[in-house]
């Protein structure tokens, strides 16, 4: 019996994995200049060096897909740009956001409006939150801070700059690097932005209403020294990035979200209520309110993450495994076997760098071979940057994150006689095609499902690794 169920679940898992499709891909990026002459001039005076432009962060809002192109090296056209969702799959040309003016490099004492954002977030109120690191030539000896790190907020209805907030000096130091942002937007007038400083490390909380920010420190923001060695497609390197992945749940009955977070160099996932983070005094006094959820296991260093409110599923990038995975946040267990594999490929998913879910429940992933760009050389004759997508329901179907594990009909027919005789199963599950994993896992009288679940998860994880 266990064996049959095991095969059944495993079959459906294999069938459902790797459901993302490539929506856009680039060998090298290009920008839409006001005219051919201006593009030629930019190429000529090295204001634009195409092979130094690497897409990194992404966001989707209505008909536009936004991309950040940080200034790792000289010659970045514009560090924030967009394409239209109806653009061509191959090499769609990037349009500067909000316009060319905001990216213009001027004389030494006048920096562009936007210098070098790593990540952005469009909220449900129609605002685009841009977290600008302020650095230029990040991968060069000529690294400079053109501006202090800033938060810029644009109105997506007319692309006008609504507000800028410079991170105050007492909330950062010279090592600070603000690479990721999450926005709590249940109340448009009382929204909060959470800004991760991966190097200090720290979390700066910004209140839209009070137009002020404060710094939260915690031991869990630090990197794990045992997890620093990475190997991506044979490129070996050591990183020491602290707090990075930030994902906010929907509001609880009092209006507070849960922030799921992790350092990039770590195998662990943590959580804390924004009830704590939103109150500076409370945040500094409440160490035990920050919870360790568990460990994902070896080689599971994770970058970006995103919480999908309708399914309660946390999506996250496995940067050292060329994979995207998921965890159902209603699952009481957080360990290796409770993770679901969404997509894994040493070709199209080399370094998944950002993940978002849009308002129409499409999950989007950007992969960009960053370690090869930084430590070797990209081959510009092949595809280097990709954006992959799927409906959330399709992406998680059949994984441990699915609330309805879909059973393959042919196998169902084979085991129907057994199912009919199984009183236990009929009692807990009126519809044999739809099984609620979480409910089953929680039911103490239903050890059979848990056992099956564990067996299947183990097998699936074996495949993942
Ligand atoms: C693509 O979308 C943009 C913005 O919605 C629109 O202006 C444009 O006409 C569309 N192009 C095509 C070919 O449908
Ligand atoms: C930080 O940088 C500023 C300006 O570059 C410099 O004056 C200051 O000494 C630095 N502080 C530390 C602690 O390195
Ligand atoms: C890194 O990965 C490559 C294969 O991609 C492998 O040959 C090499 O041994 C790995 N290095 C380490 C230190 O594991
Ligand atoms: C923050 O928390 C402290 C300690 O619980 C409390 O005294 C204070 O009123 C709170 N502040 C706000 C603005 O809620
Ligand atoms: C990708 O994986 C396939 C199958 O495991 C393997 O044959 C191939 O060598 C790998 N390619 C790289 C670049 O690691």
TrEMBL record:
<dbReference type="Pfam" id="PF03022">
    <property type="entry name" value="MRJP"/>
</dbReference>
<dbReference type="InterPro" id="IPR017996">
    <property type="entry name" value="MRJP/yellow-related"/>
</dbReference>
<comment type="similarity">
    <text>Belongs to the major royal jelly protein family.</text>
</comment>
<protein>
    <recommendedName>
        <fullName>Protein yellow</fullName>
    </recommendedName>
</protein>
<keyword id="KW-0964">Secreted</keyword>
<keyword id="KW-0732">Signal</keyword>
<dbReference type="GO" id="GO:0005576">
    <property type="term" value="C:extracellular region"/>
</dbReference>
<dbReference type="InterPro" id="IPR011042">
    <property type="entry name" value="6-blade_b-propeller_TolB-like"/>
</dbReference>
<feature type="signal peptide">
    <location>
        <begin position="1"/>
        <end position="16"/>
    </location>
</feature>
């Amino acid at each position: 019996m266990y064996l049959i169920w095991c095969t059944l679940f495993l079959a459906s898992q294999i069938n459902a994995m790797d459901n993302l499709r490539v929506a856009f891909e680039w060998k090298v990026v290009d920008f839409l200049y006001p005219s051919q002459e201006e593009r030629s001039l930019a190429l000529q005076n090295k204001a634009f060096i195409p092979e130094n432009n690497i897409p990194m962060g992404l966001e989707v809002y209505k008909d536009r897909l936004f991309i950040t192109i940080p200034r790792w090296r000289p010659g970045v056209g514009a560090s924030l740009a967009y394409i239209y969702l109806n653009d061509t799959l191959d090499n769609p040309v990037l349009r500067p956001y909000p316009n060319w003016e905001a990216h213009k490099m001027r004389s030494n004492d006048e920096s562009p409006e936007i210098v070098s954002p790593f990540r952005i977030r469009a909220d449900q109120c129609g605002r685009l939150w841009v977290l600008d690191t302020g650095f230029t030539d990040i991968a060069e000896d000529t690294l400079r801070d053109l501006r202090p790190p800033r938060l810029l907020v644009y109105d997506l209805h007319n692309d006008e700059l609504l507000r800028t907030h410079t991170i105050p000096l007492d909330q950062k130091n010279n090592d600070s690097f603000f690479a990721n942002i999450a926005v709590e937007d249940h109340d448009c007038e009382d929204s909060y932005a959470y800004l991760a400083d991966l190097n200090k490390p720290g979390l700066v909380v910004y209140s839209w209403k009070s137009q002020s920010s404060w710094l939260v420190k915690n031991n869990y923001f630090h990197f794990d020294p045992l997890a620093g060695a990475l190997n991506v497609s044979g490129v070996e390197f050591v990183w020491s990035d602290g707090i990075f992945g930030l994902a906010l749940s929907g509001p609880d009955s009092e209006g507070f979200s849960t922030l799921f977070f992790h350092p990039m160099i770590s195998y662990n996932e943590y959580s804390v209520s924004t009830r704590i983070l939103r109150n500076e005094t409370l945040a500094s006094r409440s160490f035990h309110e920050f919870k360790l959820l568990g460990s994902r296991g070896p080689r599971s260093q994770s970058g970006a993450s995103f919480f999908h409110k309708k399914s309660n599923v946390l999506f996250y990038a496995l940067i050292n495994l060329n994979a995207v995975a998921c965890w159902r946040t209603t699952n009481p267990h957080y360990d290796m076997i409770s993770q679901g594999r969404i997509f894994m490929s040493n070709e199209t998913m080399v370094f998944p760098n950002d993940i978002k879910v849009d308002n129409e429940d499409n999950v989007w992933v950007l992969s960009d071979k960053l370690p090869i760009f930084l430590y070797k050389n990209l081959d510009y004759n092949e595809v280097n940057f990709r954006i992959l997508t799927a409906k959330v329901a399709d992406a998680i179907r059949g994984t441990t994150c699915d609330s309805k594990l879909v059973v393959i009909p042919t196998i169902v027919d084979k085991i129907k006689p057994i199912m009919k005789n199984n009183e236990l199963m009929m009692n807990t599950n009126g519809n044999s095609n739809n099984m609620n994993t979480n409910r089953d896992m929680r039911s103490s009288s239903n050890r059979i499902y848990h056992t099956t679940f564990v067996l299947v998860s183990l097998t699936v994880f074996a495949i993942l690794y």
